[in-house]
Amino acid sequence: MRALTPHRRVMLLAIVLMTLMSATVVLATASTLILRSRFDATIGSDVPRLQYLLHLDRDLFRGERALEMSLVEPDHVQRTNLISEYERQVDRTANWWDKYLSTSAGLPSEIAWQNDYATQRVAWITSSESLSVLAGNGQGLTNAAVDSQLAITQSDFDSMRSTVYKLEEQVGEPLIDRATSGLRRQSTATVVEMLVLLIVGLGAGWVTSVTTYRAARRQYRASRKRDRERIDDSARVAFEAELNQALDMAQTEDGALQTISLVLDKENADNPTELLLADSSQAHLKQVMSTDRVNRGPGCPALSPSDCPAIRRGTTLTFLDGSAYASCPNLRDRGGDPCRAVCVPVSVAGRTVGVLHTTGPNLEAPDAKLVTRIEEIADRSGDRIGVLRAFAKSQTQAATDPLTGLANRRSFENEVSAMLKQNRNLAIAYGDLDHFKKLNDTYGHDAGDRALRLFARVIRDSLRDLDMAARWGGEEFVIMFGNSDASTAAAALDRMRQNLVIAQAGGNSPPFTASFGVTDTVCGGDLEEMINMADGALLVAKTNGRDRVVISGRSSSQSPGDTAGSHEPTTAGGIEAQDEARV
Questions:
Q1: Helices (H), 73-171
Q2: 358 touches 331 (CB < 8 A)
Q3: Of 189, 175, 181, 168, which is closest to residue 223 (Cα–Cα)?
Q4: pLDDT of amino acid 484
Q5: How do the domains of the chain map onto residue ranges?
Q6: pLDDT, position 315
Q7: Can you identify the CATH homologous superfamily of domain 409-582?
Q8: Alpha carbon distances (Å) from 301 to 113, 295, 330, 343, 345
Q9: Would you call 43 exposed, middle or buried from its count of C-beta atoms within 10 A (0-12, 13-18, 19+)?
Q10: How far apart are CA 213 and CA 184, in angstroms?
Q11: Are both 266-386 and 409-582 of the same fold?
């Protein structure tokens, strides 16, 4: 074979190198395309799966929240709407679950968790439907059956959401991670191959290597960005869940404020934060919480909701330079060194009535995640305070007679029964307005209502803090005198009748009198027995001419004008003197 000339050798080498380069490029490109196709296929199936699970998780939470809010909603229409919202969310979660099943990867662990979810969902649907029936009947959280059913529903709900989290974190996400890692490894191999070709002087290989490397970097950065977003989303969801759990455990508004302070101590420990809420007139702002226990800062000087730009606009405002002319006047005119501020409006029961206000170093931009968390705290705090206020209002209404403002029969029975279980000494008076039917027939029912309200006011003004009065029904009233016997109570009732005469001097209601029967724990063992005994004494008072006080077991000859009474006081003057000072 004839030896090749140097020229031909160079040409042959060039042909061989070009062929090698072409083969390498073709193989690398084919491998990348195949892997990219597999990656796209994985992403195309797994991302929707994760989205369906996230939508499912969100609507499960909304359904449970709507159901729980319906329990404390006093308005029937709103409660019906909340129950309807719960039912809609249940239907939506079933739809999302069906869509997820259509994209299932079919892994053994995934199938096991799917079966767990199906079982847990049946249990949750059953318990939550029972709870929605109770809510639809207008029962509140004070009902023991509702509390028990709510605990069962929440337990079922937590188990079901835990299974959804497993499907998200241990099935969907690993598939994406493996596909991303494979693509990253293949990209690195392609870069190495192109660099080898670059070393032997092939410009085409260098161009291909650089192009492939840049594409891999873009995908890597996109993957890292998605990872960071997922981590941020998971942290935000965890924070929201922890915040909601902490606020849900607060049973009073003061307890909610204490919880908010603890959360802000953790999330914004370096800067003082305060919560300002409008009073009942909606005309004045008052600081109700501050993380600065010493100076009660930051000390926003806004006096009314209209003085706060964040409340007026209903949006978060950030002022980096407290001395700038475009900053909040309350911040600029505060005095001292300039500082930055973040002001987040707080809405309670749908109305913007407060602001969560925090300060920091001037000209130093606050962390975006911190601002987001403060906004979440403001949003959740307003919701919880609104729920607690509505619940407190409903409890007060449930325990009060709407006409007289006194306690109703049920709350009186509960309070006195509790005192009797503690073996407390007390007296019970049972009384009513004399000739009330005649008063109604003569002057009209409006006059009768005025008389009842006047009588209730006289009773309320004549009692001590340890006494209690309630409207028993119609024109009948019961009074409990704490740490008293029947004789002491009878003396107090005589003075109450005198106060009634004085109160009627204004002429706002027709003239009327009242009669009472009295007994105490010496004579009666339980509330029902004492009520019956006092009622019997009241009947004696009516029989003997009305406008008098009769102690159970004693006769009465008292005339309407006699304020000394026909009873025989058996106690020393200490308690009577205390009653005189009160009257």
A1: 76-102, 108-136, 144-167
A2: no
A3: 181
A4: 92
A5: 6-248, 266-386, 409-582
A6: 92
A7: Reverse transcriptase/Diguanylate cyclase domain (3.30.70.270)
A8: 55, 14, 6, 13, 16
A9: middle
A10: 10
A11: no
The DSSP string of 392-414 is HHHHHHHTB-TTT-SB-HHHHHH
| Residue 580 confidence (pLDDT) above 50 | no
Residue 488 to residue 426: CA distance in whole angstroms: 10
Cα angle 174, 219, 104; round to 5 = 30
**What are 233's two structure tokens?**
């989303």
Q: Higher model confidence: residue 129 or residue 309?
A: 309
Architecture of domain 266-386: 2-Layer Sandwich (3.30)
Task: Report pLDDT for 309.
Answer: 92
| pLDDT at position 165 | 81
CA angle 123, 124, 125 (to 5 degrees): 95
User: Are 316 and 371 within 8 A, CB to CB?
Assistant: yes
| Coil, helix or strand at residue 323 | coil
Which position has the token pair 């979440």? Answer: 376
Which is it for strands 273-278 and 514-520: parallel, antiparallel or unpaired?
unpaired
* pLDDT for 295: 85
Mind listing the pLDDT tens digit for each residue in 322-380? 888 888 888 877 767 888 999 999 998 778 889 999 999 988 889 888 899 899 999 99
Show Cβ contacts of residue 410 under 8 Å, excluding neighbours closer than 6 positions. 399
> What kind and span of H or E run contains 302?
none
Q: 426 pLDDT exceeds 70?
A: yes
| One-letter amino acid of 539 | L
